[in-house]
Amino acid sequence: MAANTTDEVFKWIKKEEKRQSEGLELIPSENYVSENVLRxxxxxxxxxxxxxxxxxxxxxxxxxxxxxxxxxxxxxxxxFHADHANVQPHSGANANEAVYxxxxxxxxxxxxxxxPAGGHLTHGSPVTRSAKIYNFVGYGVTExxxxxxxxxxxxxxxxxxxxxxxxxxxxxKIPDFDRVKKIADEVAKESxxxxxxxxxxxxxxxxxxxxxxxxxxxxxxxxxxxxxxxTLRGPRGGLILSMGTVxxxxxxxxxxxxxxxxxIDRAVFPGTQGGPLEHVIAAKAVAFEEDLxxxxxxxxxxxxxxxxxxADELMKLGFKLQGNGTENHLILVNVKDSYGFxxxxxxxxxxxxxxxxxxxxxPTDKGGAFRPSGVRLGTPAMTTRGLGEDDxxxxxxxxxxxxxxxxxxxxxxxxxxxxxxxxxLRSEVRELALAHPIPGIE
Length: 442
Ligand code: DSN
Hints:
The chain is an alpha/beta fold. It has helices at 8-22, 35-41, 63-80, 92-103, 129-133, 149-159, 177-191, 205-209, 260-272, 278-291, 294-316, 335-339, 343-352, 380-384, 389-409, 419-434, and strands at residues 24-25, 52-53, 56-57, 84-86, 109-113, 135-139, 163-167, 196-200, 223-227, 238-242, 330-334, 355-356, 358-360, 374-378. It contains 16 helices and 14 strands. Helix 15 (389-409) packs antiparallel against helix 16 (419-434). It binds D-serine. The site of D-serine (DSN) has 5 residues, from loops. D-serine binds at residues 29, 92, 120, 169, 202.
């Protein structure tokens, strides 16, 4: 059957292709997938129901699907040196919820980085379902942007949590997993109950696989959750890796750390999800094979080099950065302290020249979610497009030129008076962007 692309939807897809091609993506949680990943996602696997797990399905006709899911599982285990992988979570949020559900009872305490400090919504923000079920206690960060380990330790002894979570969506240091493991061991000894150590590595998973970031599973952590579309450069989705004995997911099992792989399988299906998205799982398998190639290690190393260059260059130009730089792929700029305007104005202005990033609250912020003082940016997507350190210097220069315009404009409305300057910068960005095409876009 020939493809019919006359539906208006395809017009908008074309426009989005143009937007992505002509701009540069600075949002640290976004990336570009390969043509093979796109092809797997757009396959007939979307037609199939496959509730259950390979060889243990509730529907017939899964002989091909089983092989695909098994490939995804084996590749994921190899990437993270894990005993077990569950490739079915539809998203990072689903992955996190399944882990909480696998181990905690309603009312149990979970210790996690607070949202203002850089944690994620699903780590206990009061607006989430998980926060209504479990008792989240938040630890903070120090002035230089690192985890406040003393705070974490004190809270762990005080609350004796069932689960300690290290994870974040706006944090630019490398966590000291050994230190957290030591704290958990001490508290477990005190309380006589096992503590699940969970790392939400959604942002840095690709850096772990690429060998430029420690792997929490090799530092005593029991579980990693991650999305598959950020630095792993796969389709939009979730993934859970764990250490322990792998049992039959269709059978009930005792709640102890050794059984966490099976407890997680049961928490994903039937605990929190129904039919898995096997076309997405196929795309995950394709991306994981790409991630296991030697070139991916070069890619991961280049992400970090680019981030450090961009951070250094921004600081040279007068930007104040949270943590004075970065140890990973992510940079948090305190635009308010640097230039007096807020992160939202800057986000809007940069959008006008084709540099996309997001306004982001800082740990000390009083500005609220819609008018935060900072912006968050990173290098995974630009690195996929083949941009290097010299290009990062150019990006920093454009960011400074836009900051100078924002100083004059004061707010979003004021930007209208600087259209000509912004358009000129947009042409420069477009030229660099078009010289680095995106896979799958002609
Ligand atoms: N929304 C993602 C991010 O941008 O960090 C996390 O889920």
